[in-house]
Amino acid sequence: MENIQLKKVTLNDIDQLQKIGRQTFFETFAESNTEENMKEYLEKSFSTEKLHSELNNPNSEFYFAVEEDTVIGYLKINFGASQTELKDDKALEIERIYVLKEFHGKKVGQLLYEKAIQIAKETKADYVWLGVWEENHRALAFYKKNGFVEFDKHIFRLGNDEQTDIMMKLQLKL
Prior knowledge:
Elements: E1 4-8, H1 14-29, H2 35-45, H3 48-56, E2 60-67, E3 70-79, E4 91-99, H4 108-122, E5 127-133, H5 137-145, E6 149-158, E7 161-171
Parallel strand pairs: 4-5
Antiparallel strand pairs: 1-2, 2-3, 3-4, 5-7, 6-7
């Protein structure tokens, strides 16, 4: 983990972001979903146009985890109106933390998570929140280990499949 660098993603990195986004989402969810739903989601959510728009949004930030010039994971955070749901100015949303499967268990996700918490504290957020698919037991355990608690549920659409996400929150200020 000591030779992993975090790098803020810029428009120049859009091709790398598209590649790591599609690859890590596929690795994480392909075996639990239909090929059609995966294909539709990957094309829509990681289209060049959508990523371009997200990278140009001042209330969203992406960070790469890089090891020896290879992107091995990434983080996406949202502030204010860019949050997918709560849109609370006192909150920061972790929308995505994904790591290549071959790097699972090597603390890359923890490094990306710690970056999000650092930014939340720097921006004086009262809390951090996120949504995790109820079937993603690895991610649920990760966030619980880091102090997050469940507070609600919402529906996440993957193609034509409606899935339940557990919404979790970490209070930073009382």
